[in-house]
């Protein structure tokens, strides 16, 4: 497939990169940008994904408000079901790529579900944690932890084509067939990237979880695990 140079640009990341260097395709100079949208995800030069958080939160708040205005029936379980179908996918699309690690960003995204549940009939004067228990759901932060682990399961079991990561992650000398060797991380963007941030959590899982026969079984076993230590923000 021929590359369309007019749709290409250069995004420079890292402290040692030279952003003034010029790149060409078919003798056409490519413009240098600070952020770019790729497959629905906003990526910026700092790898903080701040613009992406703002975009998805704005869209999610708008759609959540639309649900509350348009549904005639006010049953909390019915309205939240609509939330899970029409709003939550916006907040979780490709989350292993951009999963936030800073408290402000985590709270910014969580505020969508926190605000929606508070506007449900009879839920205004009870805590967020209690609202989640009554609805039988988890916080968005906890769901992102599990989504990370599910993607790791798929990679390690060959269900997705990311074989290049195996040589970096797998260490046959560690305990268990699927224990992962954690590389040294000298910068935050590396330590908080998908390749590294859940390694300790993964290694703490029991072997029967690692060796689950299918993704469905793996998801079911995750509900029995405690991920409190992985959560940065409280739901209280």
3D structure, described in words:
The chain is 47% helix and 7% strand. It is mainly alpha-helical. The protein folds into 3 domains: 5-33, no CATH class; 50-137, no CATH class; 143-230, no CATH class. The strands form 3 sheets. A two-stranded parallel ribbon has the order 1-4. Strands 2-3 form a two-stranded antiparallel ribbon. A two-stranded antiparallel ribbon has the order 5-6. Helix 1 (50-70) packs parallel to helix 5 (103-118). The model is unreliable at 170-176 (pLDDT under 50).
Number of helices: 13
By secondary-structure content and strand pairing, the structural class works out as mainly alpha
Q: What's the helix-strand series?
A: EEEEEEHHHHHHHHHHHHH
Strand content: 5-15%
Q: Using the CA coordinates, give the radius of gyration.
A: 21 Å
Number of strands: 6
Mean residue pLDDT: 86
Strand order of the largest sheet: 1-4
Percent of residues in helices comes to 40-55%
Largest sheet, if any? 2 strands, parallel
Summarize it:
With 236 residues, the chain is mostly helical. The protein is built from 13 helices and six strands.
Write the layout of secondary structure elements.
Layout: E1 10-11, E2 24-25, E3 28-29, E4 32-33, E5 35-38, E6 41-44, H1 50-70, H2 76-86, H3 88-92, H4 95-98, H5 103-118, H6 128-135, H7 140-156, H8 166-169, H9 188-191, H10 194-197, H11 199-204, H12 207-210, H13 215-222
Parallel strand pairs: 1-4
Antiparallel strand pairs: 2-3, 5-6
Helix pairs in contact: 1-2, 1-5, 7-13
